[in-house]
């Protein structure tokens, strides 16, 4: 099957590149972005059979957790979720770009230039069957960080050993809490970051934008939510469009889909056509040839990042403007956004007096850090707005982890049950929860995923045969 021969690679850089190329080729050749997930599922199924007392009944293997160290394509996440349902958990670990580069340099012996190329390639390649780690990251159920919240002066005073010990303790606390939630601890409630980000994501669902759904929520210094916003078209009188509550229909020519096109994308096309018409062509044939070639080049340029012609108000701006309409000060407030803010929103965030921004999805188009390095930071240094990656239970699993009864797993209780099944009538005492006797909240029968594992194993076997037949 594999065309990769690690023993022939002479350096860590060549090995890393070879492994990435191998994965890209497998996805491309199989025309399946999730083929490596099928390979992982096949391996899990084989391990299950090897360890089972009865190889024909792999479901007999009990209390086993399988960890896949890295996923590189969003299709892989989809396939694993289809196979394992609610017992599949995607964990994203946040780390700064500088820390990743330092790790590759020291632990993997990569030179700086090679490390930069590897990090950039890993984040997202232009090839749709290439690595798309950034798009995987935003699908996570749980977000963790290796960097604890810092008090700048106190942190600067610590030596390297103290800082490392604090990082380890912070990561241990996150892992312990997540495991307790998975096993139904009824007394763990959301942090303000988790709650506010859930509200921001809920707000994003009201957006009818043709491209994407983005949501925002603003929390004041008293940790109260004071405004929400979504990316959508503004309406006369203030705010954004809602469907009619009686007909459930939208206003004619209101939202973009009612008009049938994205004004921003249409303007991009007009600008490109205008540029191409400035050239002089010798013949009509030459004009056709060069216009098509140049058009593709321009479509791949930064022109596609222009947002000046969109009709929609961005989610961050919608939330900020809601505060302006209602006379709410944003001095020292925190904005939660499902996506890293664009540079247009960033300048208004700074101007409004916000002190912190929390986000989940990266946004490569944003020039925020380039244009406003004097007033924005991601490393928590100086008197600037701190842009922090989200840490905690992701919005997609908020109900599963924090609802007593609305979870996709079994319900949990906070009071002891009396003998007749009623709850806490006798003395209202709190239920006992112990790690040693806790059960995984998200239950599933073995048959619900064993058959799916077998299907994915067959897909992988077919891919292996196809590769072997091609002599690769």
How is this structure best described in words?
- It is a single chain.
- This protein is α/β, with parallel strands linked by helices and 472 residues long.
- The protein is 43% helix and 8% strand.
- The chain has 17 helices and 9 strands.
- It has helices spanning 12-30, 35-51, 74-84, 97-106, 112-123, 133-137, 152-156, 160-182, 192-204, 256-259, 263-276, 284-299, 315-325, 343-352, 368-371, 398-402, 447-469; strands at residues 91-94, 142-145, 215-219, 225-230, 334-339, 356-361, 376-377, 385-389, 392-393.
- The chain has a 6-stranded mixed sheet, with helices on both faces. A 3-stranded mixed sheet has the order 1-2-9, with helices on one face.
- A hairpin with a 5-residue loop joins strand 3 and strand 4.
- Helix 2 packs parallel to helix 3 (74-84) and helix 4 (97-106) packs across helix 5.
- The longest helix has 23 residues, at 160-182.
- It is globular.
- It starts with 11 loop residues before the first helix and ends with a helix.
- The model is unreliable at 1-9 (pLDDT under 50).
């Amino acid at each position: 099957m594999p065309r990769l021969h690690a023993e022939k690679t002479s350096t860590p850089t060549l090995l890393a590149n070879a492994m990435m190329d191998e994965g890209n080729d497998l996805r491309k050749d199989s025309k399946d972005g999730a083929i490596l997930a099928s390979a992982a599922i096949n391996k899990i199924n084989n391990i299950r059979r090897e360890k089972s007392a009865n190889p024909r009944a792999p479901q007999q293997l009990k209390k086993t957790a399988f960890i896949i160290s890295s996923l590189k394509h969003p299709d892989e996440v989809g396939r694993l979720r289809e196979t394992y349902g609610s017992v599949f958990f995607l964990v994203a670990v946040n780390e700064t770009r500088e820390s990743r580069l330092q790790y590759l340099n020291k632990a993997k012996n990569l030179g700086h230039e090679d490390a930069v190329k590897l990090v950039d390639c890993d984040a997202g390649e232009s090839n749709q069957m290439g690595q798309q780690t950034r798009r995987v990251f935003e699908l996570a159920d749980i977000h963790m960080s290796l960097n604890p919240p810092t008090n700048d002066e106190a942190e600067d005073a610590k030596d390297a050993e103290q800082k490392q010990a604090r990082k380890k303790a912070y990561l241990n606390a996150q892992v312990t809490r997540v495991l307790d939630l998975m096993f139904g601890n009824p007394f763990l409630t959301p942090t303000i970051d988790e709650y506010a980000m859930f509200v921001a994501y809920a707000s994003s669902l009201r957006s009818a934008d043709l491209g994407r759904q983005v949501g925002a929520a603003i929390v004041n210094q008293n940790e109260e939510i004071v405004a929400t916003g979504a990316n959508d078209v503004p309406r006369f009188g203030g705010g954004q469009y809602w469907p009619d509550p009686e007909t459930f229909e939208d206003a004619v020519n209101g939202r973009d889909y009612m008009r049938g096109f994205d004004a921003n994308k249409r303007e991009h096309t007009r600008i490109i056509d205008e540029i191409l018409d400035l050239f002089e062509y010798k013949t009509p044939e030459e004009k056709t040839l060069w216009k098509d070639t140049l058009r593709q080049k321009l479509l791949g340029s930064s022109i596609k990042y222009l947002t000046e012609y969109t009709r929609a108000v961005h989610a961050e701006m919608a939330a900020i403007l809601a505060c302006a309409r209602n006379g709410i000060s944003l001095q020292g407030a925190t904005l939660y956004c499902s996506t890293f803010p664009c540079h247009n929103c960033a300048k208004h965030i700074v101007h409004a007096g916000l002190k912190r921004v929390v986000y989940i999805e990266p946004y490569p188009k944003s020039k925020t850090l380039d244009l406003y390095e004097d007033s924005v930071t991601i490393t928590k240094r100086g008197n600037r707005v701190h842009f922090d990656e989200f840490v905690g239970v992701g919005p997609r699993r908020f109900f599963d982890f924090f609802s007593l009864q609305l979870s996709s797993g079994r319900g949990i209780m906070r009071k002891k049950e009396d003998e007749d099944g009623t709850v806490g009538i006798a003395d209202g005492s709190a239920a006992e929860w112990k790690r040693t006797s806790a059960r995984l909240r998200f239950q599933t029968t073995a048959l619900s995923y064993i058959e799916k594992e077998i299907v994915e194993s067959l897909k992988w076997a077919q891919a292996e045969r196809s590769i072997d037949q091609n002599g690769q």
